[in-house]
Design goal:
The chain has about 500 residues and is an alpha/beta fold. Helices cover about 40% and strands about 20% of the residues. The strands form four sheets. Strands 14-15-13-12-11-10-9-6-16 form a nine-stranded mixed β-sheet, with helices on both faces. Bound molecules: iron/sulfur cluster.
Length: about 500
């Protein structure tokens, strides 16, 4: 474990995330100086030691500078910075200012670059939405090249990733130009049930089998919450509707029909431009469910293979085969869907570039309308983290080099990258990219990533986002746990 200590409770998240990005297989803890690290103390108990643990990094915020002291087997190294641009501008160093946070990240990134001898593809960026930086530059009149250069110079982003982000930002702006959003909003509906739980899952998801009684109570609460949301948004234009989860098609055809009907009954859906249902798991897709989706105005669905290798599907607990994915995809085409997305994950346990190439070849043969490529993210407390603790981090190192294979495959399918986001603890320090054929992009995905509209979200674990004056974004989270969610809705004032 790598321990970082700070002399003030500032920017611990940033320190933790950047160290972790440079040392992906390591546990990292950033604590206040003098504070014990519980895991380290627990390991020491048997020898009775409780003394202060040695820190890999000590950060000192002083009156006018930041100091960093690194200790490892190579020795002790000291780096210190007074934010130059602040000094030159005659601005007093303020430990809580955004400029100080930037200075800390620059210093930490350069120090870790120096210590490890390598760079990170996304430089010092640890946030979810790197394209937002490029979008801002483009909106201020920069060209694609200038926006990319800004990301390289200001945030140490590699040339490739900076160009990718700037091109995607431009594509998003072009798509939005032809889809004026104005002051509408989007609706998200979460179904937290799946046929089984995948090894890497970090979403609200519970097994659907044997949960019929609970699903009934859940749907009643969901209908109630949807009614409240509809009341609150009366008179506003609804632009997109997205059913995610979980796996919405883990519901029965009858339950799906009732839920979609409820949304249409409660909301004015006359101006909705996009209805997406993440059918997701091929083992949940049946002809009668597809017919229900077609009977309602669903325009876009996902049939997600994640991988087309059966051995990997068994390891990750997907409970379906590659053959089932092929069948579900054909069924969806035959049902009349002309906008089908497929999701895949890079860096799955044991997968090599050859396995990824095989998955991409199978996907190309099916010919989806969009492809979303995820780099595996290892969430704290997930079953995947346990798996890695047992099998070793080396089993999941493949994401970095294989993203290029996915980019080439998308090009062969005439798809352009149109949205991008990152998550914490992604293998290979990569990203997730959505590719789509012309006109087959997911508008909701862009709205979410660029935070362009309020999103009213219903269901366990869902997150609504609203804008306060000045466009400050406020989140409102629903409980992830199903009984807590049902209780919350029951006790809500209407
Ligand atoms: S299908 Fe998605 S939501 Fe369901 S268990 Fe797998 S990763 Fe989680």
């Amino acid at each position: 474990m790598l321990v970082a200590k700070v002399n003030a409770d500032l920017y611990r998240y940033e320190i933790d995330a950047l160290i972790h990005a440079f040392y992906p297989g390591e546990e990292v803890r950033t604590v206040l100086a003098g504070q014990a690290v519980p895991e380290v103390q627990a390991n020491k108990k048997s020898c009775g030691g409780t003394e202060d643990e040695p820190a890999f990094l000590s950060v000192e915020y002083e009156e006018d500078c930041i100091g960093m002291l690194f200790s490892d087997e190579q020795g002790v190294r000291r780096f210190a910075a007074l934010p130059g641009e602040l000094k030159e501008a005659g601005i007093r160093f303020d430990r809580r200012s955004p400029e100080t946070k930037d200075a800390l990240k620059h210093l930490l990134y350069e120090s870790l670059q120096d210590i490890t001898g390598h760079d990170l593809p996304w430089g010092e960026l640890i946030g979810v939405r790197p394209t937002k930086i490029a979008t801002k530059q483009l909106q201020n009149g920069a060209s694609i090249n200038e926006a990319a250069l800004y990301m390289q110079k200001r945030h140490y982003v590699s040339e490739d990733k900076a160009m990718l982000a700037a091109r995607i930002a431009q594509t998003e702006l072009d798509i939005l130009d032809s889809n004026v959003l104005g002051d509408g909003y989007s609706l998200y509906v979460g179904i937290p049930y799946c046929p089984s739980t995948c090894l890497y899952c970090s979403f609200p998801s519970y097994p659907a089998a044997g949960a019929a009684g609970q699903i009934k109570a859940y749907l009643e609460a969901l209908h109630e919450e949807l009614a409240m949301i509809a009341d609150m948004n009366r008179g506003r234009r609804l632009d997109t509707v997205y059913f995610g989860g979980g796996t919405p098609t883990a519901l029965s055809a009858g339950e799906l029909d009732q839920l979609l009907g409820k949304v249409r009954e409660l909301f004015d859906t006359g101006k909705v431009r996009e209805w997406t249902v993440e059918a997701g798991r091929p083992d949940s897709i049946t002809e009668d469910k597809l017919r229900v989706l077609r009977d309602h105005p669903v325009t876009r669905i996902s049939v997600n293979p994640q991988t087309m290798n059966d051995a990997t599907l068994r390891i990750i607990g997907r409970g379906h085969t590659a053959e089932q994915t092929v069948r579900a995809f054909h069924m969806a085409r035959e049902a009349g869907f002309d906008n089908i997305n497929m999701d895949m994950i890079l860096g799955l346990p044991g997968e090599t570039a050859k396995d990824v190439a095989h998955t991409l070849k199978e996907i190309e043969e099916l010919g989806p309308d969009s492809l979303t490529v995820h780099s595996l993210a290892i969430k704290k407390g997930s079953r995947m983290q346990q798996y890695i603790a047992e099998k070793g981090y080396d089993t999941v190192l493949g994401a970095g080099s294989t993203m290029e294979l996915a980019i080439d495959s998308a090009k062969r399918m005439d798809m352009l990258p149109y949205y991008l986001y990152r998550q914490k603890n992604m293998t290979g320090n990569q990203e997730n990219i959505g590719f789509a054929k012309n006109g087959k992009y997911g508008l909701y995905n862009i709205i979410m990533m660029e935070e362009l509209q309020p999103v009213a979200a219903a269901g366990a674990g869902s997150v609504s986002k609203f804008f306060e004056p000045g466009r400050r974004i406020v989140r409102s989270d629903n409980p992830k746990e199903i009984t807590a969610y049902i209780e919350k809705i029951k006790s809500a004032d209407r």
